[in-house]
Amino acid sequence: MFRNILYKTFSLLSTQEATAFEKDSHNCEDAQLRKLLQIIQNNASTEYGKKYQFNSIKSVADFQKAVPINDYESLSPYIERIASGAQNILTSEPPFMFATTSGTTGARKLIPVTNAYMQEFRKASAISGYYLLKHFPAIAHGVTLSIFSPAQDSLTTAGLPCGAISGRLYLKEPFFIRKFISPLPYEICLIKDYEARYYTLLRCALMLPVTCIYTLNPSTIALLSRRLKTHAEQLINDVAKGTISLTSSMPANIEKVIKPFLQADHVRARYLQKLLADGQFTPDKVWPGLALITCWTKAAAAFYLQDFPEFFGSTPVCDITYGASEGRGTVFLSPEKQALAIRSHFFEFIEADKMTSDNKEVLTATQLQTGKEYNILFTTSGGLYRYNINDIVQVVGWHNQIPLLEFLHKSGNISSFTGEKLTESQVTQAVADSTHTHNITLRFFTVIPEFRPEPHYQLWLEPSHELDQNQLVRLSESFDQCLSQLNSEYEVKRASHRLGSAQVFQLSANSYEDLRKHLVAQGIPDAQIKISHLNPKEEIKEILKTKLGKATTRSLIGS
Among 448, 436, 407, 427, which residue's Cα sits nearest to residue 490? Predict the structure, then answer.
């Protein structure tokens, strides 16, 4: 009963923000100018604001003329000083933490997080939550299984915490939300041992009426679902006895925090045992009230959704909206509509194919065109001004005057031997199409550009079941054909033999999970692990090389 009251209260409170968003959708230009001037005026007295004469900015044109387009390299000298304790540099309000980017391996970036910036995030969350409940009211009948990363994993030299913004957002939720809506203890995400963390999460969640699963990475959900099956007997035994296994690697304080979830429940255990005996021990049956899964579903993340029907049946899956540590890009309006978050930040756009041009035109939201692809620039209350996040988005429609966006891929992740300019989204689609043709399911894949003995692409994949040589050959042929259909330049280069045919390499079983475990051991939050589907970082390649089998035997020159 109290949970229902909380959901109704949230819906009422978020109605105001949703109503304001709808009103602004009819005058997007004014809403964006209002947001820009608010950010500029609040930070006019900062070092950065004085340098670029924020006090003189009265319009978007003034802003674009005065302030340069930035990337992390151009802002990092300011951010490093802030991390060392300097104040009034980028924002008049000091940051209370730094969000770390989720790039897998390599030097991480520190994104300043102020209270005003958190409010911008919350505006988008309020609108998205309002429409999620409107479209999926059954969510209100239970709790959300949230998976996030630690809010703090290190400190700057000035003692400011660095960590995941997802964890910080959770910790800032009101007490009653954390207790009754998303009740799994935050401390579970602090368990460093990979297996123990997943097991503890499942053990506690089995005692809850889960109606929604909410996390960024769909591969995390798939792995959690496999763990549910792997540990079924052990989990059921723990539910019956009120115990928890796999605790040898857990911090001492965890058992105290999760104790409320460890009551013996013989009725629940018998229900779960019957599911197992009937071959139905899957998440949708374990939590029969499950009404929604929300996670990344676009671009490369879509690949990991292929296993969801096996685990979740017909449970709806909705995209978690486009965003990053650097800012919230969209809000959820319906399962098919994600609108630019115009009340959260100020946005600018540059046509993707003109990004490197000397005379590129910078556009505002209302100047975009349906179907076109753009680099997106963020200006936020966290101190990012005209910040190129290196994301490519596509306009897929409109909500009144607000563009509906879909994330495609990182702008830098393009491979080109001879001008084919192959993108990660094209590679992902080609793999999806070719594996569907041959009824093959994969746990993981990545595509590697290879120069020897002549330029060609290699598809490294981990199938759900081992493939024989004939299957690999047929798959390599289909993959090559799909790339040609999706990229006309690739087709031309293949026909002229400037590119050799694609090769397929089979990775050993559990390669992807072993890779995740390695990265988690290196300190990368597992919920944020994103392995590129095209030309991953060198460290990733070296790890995967140790798990490669033989390649297909097709000639590189063959068609």
Answer: 427
Q: ω before 453 within 30° of 0 (cis)? A: yes
Helix axes 266-277, 232-241, angle to 10 degrees: 160
In angstroms, the CA 122 to CA 345 distance is: 12
CB contact burial 19-29 (16+ within 10 A = b; e otherwise): eebeebbeebe
Alpha carbons 298 and 173: distance in angstroms, whole number = 27
- Structure-token pair, residue 224: 């959690």
Nearest Cα neighbor of 540 from 460, 481, 421 is 460
Beta bridge partners of 388: 377
310 shares a domain with 292: yes
Closest CA to 319 of 304, 302, 343, 306: 302
In contact, 39 and 90? CB cutoff 8 Å: no
What is the extent of the structural domain holding 309?
137-315
Check whether residue 219 and residue 332 sit in a common domain.
no
Please work out, in degrees rounded to the nearest 5, the angle formed at the alpha carbon of residue 488 by the alpha carbons of 486 and 493.
Answer: 120
Is 127 inside a domain boundary? no
pLDDT attached to residue 550: 57
- With residues binned 3-state (H G I as helix, E B as strand, rest as coil), the percentages for the chain, rounded to 5, are 45, 20, 35
Q: Shortest CA distance to 74 belongs to which of 327, 388, 507?
A: 388
Q: Is 6 helix (H, G, I), strand (E, B) or coil?
A: helix
Sequence-distant (≥ 6) Cβ neighbours of residue 555 within 8 angstroms: 501
Model pLDDT, residue 527: 64
Q: What gap in Å lies between CA 251 and CA 191, rounded to an integer?
A: 7
CA distance 485 to 488: 7
Give φ, ψ of 397 to 5 degrees.
Answer: 160, -165
Q: 130 in a domain, yes or no?
A: no
Position 557 in a domain: no
Tell me if 472 sits within 8 A of 460, measured CB to CB. Answer: no
Based on the domain organization, do 93 and 16 belong to the same domain?
yes
Could you give the C-alpha distances from 134 to 7, 10, 542, in angstroms and in order?
Answer: 11, 12, 47
User: Would you tell me the crossing angle of helices 28-42 and 2-24 to the nearest 10 degrees?
Assistant: 100
Cα–Cα distance for residue pair 494/505, rounded to 1 Å:
20
pLDDT tops 60 at residue 140: yes
The pLDDT tens digits for 427-482 are: 999 999 999 999 999 999 999 998 877 889 999 999 999 999 999 999 999 999 99
| Statement to judge: residues 183 and 291 lie in one domain | yes
Closest to 539 measured CA to CA, from 444, 429, 446, 411: 446
Domain-embedded: residue 121: no
Q: Is the dihedral of CA 208, 213, 215, 220 positive or negative?
A: positive
